[in-house]
Every structure is written in C-alpha cells, then in structure tokens.
Design a protein that fits this description.
The chain is 70% helix and 0% strand. The chain is mainly α. Among the domains are: 58-178, Nucleotidyltransferases  domain 2 (Four Helix Bundle (Hemerythrin (Met), subunit A), Up-down Bundle), CATH 1.20.120; 398-521. The radius of gyration is 29 Å and the shape is flat.
Amino acid sequence: LSTLSLPSSMHLIQVDSVQRWMEDLKLMTDCECMCVLQSKPISIEKDEQNELMLSSQYSTCDNLQLLLKRAWIISTELTRIAQKLEKNRWQRVHSMTVRVNCHVRSMINEYNTFTRNSSEEMHQFEKLLIDKCSEFTAFTERCIQTEDEEILKSMKSCINETLTTVAQYFAQLIELVLTHEAQNLLRQIELSNSVYITESAISSLFSLTQEGAHLCRIIAKEGGVVTLFKICRQDCFRCLYPQTLRTLASICCVEEGMYQLEKVDGILCLADILTDNSHSEATHAEAAAVIAQITSPHLTFTQHLSSFLENMEEIVTALVKLCQEASSGEVFLLASAALANITFFDTMACEILLQLNAMKILLAACSDKRIVDTPYSRDQVVTILANMSVLDQCASEVIQGNGIQLLMEMLFEKSSSGSSAEVAACERVQQKSAVTLARLSRDPEVADAAVKLSCIPRLIKLCRSPTERNNSDSVLVACLAALRRLAVMSPDGLEDSDFQQLVKPRLVDSFLLCTSMEESFV
C-alpha cells in the first residue's frame, strides 16, 4: 500500500473499495454497517482508490486524537463532495454523502462514549447535524434515481445549500466539542492536587495546542494561560514546570494568549523562574522558549512589551548565563533565540549584552560544535551580532573574539540535509553575516581584518553565482552592500570588472545584473 503525502498525525492510506470497507467496519456501529452494505458501491472509477479513511492503528490514539482525525476526514470529504458535485458526478456524490453520514454518526457516538457532562447546546447541534446529514443523503439518493437533466439541475442548488448547512453545523459542533474538552482539562488542572493527574491533563492540553492556532485561541479564551501560570507559581508542581512552560509557549502564539499573559503578569513570573538558580536547566530552557515566542518579531501584537521592558535587564542577564552554561545544542538554541528576538525591539538590549560580555560568550560557543551544531543556532548567533553591530563599541569585541573569521565561515553556510527549513536557515545565516560585515566595516580595523581573510572574493562569488546563495535575492543584496563597504576601505582588493559591475553602478543596477546572470557566465 502506498502512503498518501498528508500530515503524519492522520495515518491515512490508499486502499481498494473492499479493503476500505473492511477498515470502516472497525469504526461503524452495526446499523451503520448495514447502511454501508446497502449504499456503498464497489466503484471501478480510478479515483476510488483515493478514498480517505482512518488506519487500523487508530485504537492506539487517545479519544481526543481519534475525534480530531474523524473530524479531519469529515471536513476533507465535505470538500471533495463539493468538487464532485461541481462535475455532476452524482453516483460519487451519493456514495461519499453516505460515508460522511456514517462518519458523523460514528464521531458523535464515539464522543458520547467518553465525554462527560456535555451541554444541552451540544446535544442540540448533534441532532441538527444528524438530521441534516440524513436529509442530505436522501437528496443525493433521489439524484441517482433520475437521469432528467432539468430535475438534476434544479436539485443541484438544493444539494449545495444542504452541503453548506451540514458544513456549518459540523464546524459549530466541533467548536463546541473542543471548547468543552479544553474546559474539562483546565478544570482538572485547577482542581487537582495530584501531580500525576495534573501532568496528564497538561500533556493532553499540549497535544491540543499542536493542532493549530484555532485551538490555541480556544484554550486561551477559556483561561488556559492563567491556569498554567498558577502551576508555575506552586512549588509542589516544580517537576511539571518544563511541560507547563512548553504548553504556554504554544498558546502564546496567538493574540488571545498574549493578552492573558499580560493579564496574569506572566512576564514577571518568567523573569523569576529564569533568575532562580534552584530551577533545573530544562525549566530555564522552556522559560526561554516562552520568551522567544512572545518577543518574536513576526508578531503584530505588542501590548505585552511594556511590562517586558521593565524586566528586560534581568531576563537578558539570565539568558546570557543560560547560553554560557548550556549543556546541549537545544538549550543554547532556545536561549539564543530569545536573545535574538529581544535585540530586535530595543537597542537597550544590545547595550546590556555588550556590558555582559555576551559577544565573547556567543563567539566562544560557536567554536564548540557540540553546542552550536546546526544552521538554526548559527542563525540566532549571527542575528544577535548583526543587531549589536550598530553599536560602535562592538567592533573591538568582534575582533578580540575572532568574530571576523566566524562571519567569513558563515558566508559558506550550506545545508547538509537539503530540507527546505534548513536551506532557508542557511540563507539567513549568509545574509546576516554579510549585513554584519557591512555594518562593522565602518571600522578600518575590521575592514582590514575582513580583507586579509579573503572576504572580498567570497562576497564576489556569492554575488556572481546564484547557486552559491541558493538563488536568494536577500543574500545578494546583503553581499553587494558588504562588498561596497569593503571596496571603499580597500579599493585594491577588487579587479576592474568586479568594480565596474558590482561596486560602481547603483546598487539596484548591480542587483539586476547579478540576478540575470547564467551559471555559465561565472
């Protein structure tokens, strides 16, 4: 059997009609099996093998994961019904409608076997959805019993309306179910004094946050951030701090989570955790992850940053210490990512870092391949260097720490795995190292050191060879800027053709020239 390229959490497979029906039996009640027997044809259409279903491994998943899988399948099937309806594939529309009907009933039956104290509103939506699915199936059954084009055309709009209503009821029911489950988990965390029960509830809550931003919003609106910070303020739950903080970092990717964090004075709590040496490294690392999340430059909401500035000095100090004492690459990555993000929104952070001798610590860490072991870590370090390089005092620190050599090495950054994420990280490392060189080369001593380390030939190669920079325009612009700065300080380092094409013209003209170059030109 071949595997579909779908999210791994879905465990979906391609099978023929009979095998799919056999698998479906495991998820249907007896009455639904009769429905399948009567209405599901063994189709010979070529797209039949693309039917979506749960794998037989579903029994190993917890109840919520099973619910989410079932919901994903229903949502996907509804989309496919709309596509088949558009093409007037009535037989396919009907068989898929029957299958959705079965999945909806099974989902509701399964959920009701493990849920407790579900609301009256939820039961009402369950009935509405089941009734509408039955109506939907009846509509499509009438369509396959006629060949009159006019009748089919008139029924098509009714079916479209019914399909839309089914999708709306389904979305509302899922929203209610997920809200209900989030409330149950948070209630368990609030009321339990047992470490085991609390740990289990937090673990389930974390799993929900991994299902996307929408679930994070639901959890935040139900007071998830407030509840989790209460755990982080109780010594009896210290062993759960890492897991709790990891869940908080996930929830704080949405604005509602950030609002809750501000409301509960979460930044002060994070600062207390980071500066408390009695906590484990794992706890400090997860606290750093929350800081990295809430200070991400990609976030458009910044209402929490005022209270962050009040605690910034002690947070930055703790993060530098964590970088210096990190026992693994993962811990260093989390701490350096938090520092990198902090340097984006306040120059005071760069001044604090300079006072803390952070430049020397970061440059020393880069020479330890056990700690700085991936392009992602080097991306964080070079981001900090680039942002600190706006300070005049930074140049001497870089020279003393052999930083120019490191920047030169970063210009050669290449992906070892070839994954898109790693390739993108390598591009950022190249770009930011070029930016840092351009900024630092205001200082003649830095420029001289860069020239002696053959930075100019490397920058020229990156400009002229698209494959060297992975066809990245941002790397090209940064390299042109660095090359022009070094050419001013050391004009003898360039051949005339390089000067005429890469330095003398306007930057935009040099950029256009380099982006139009064929590889054979190099």
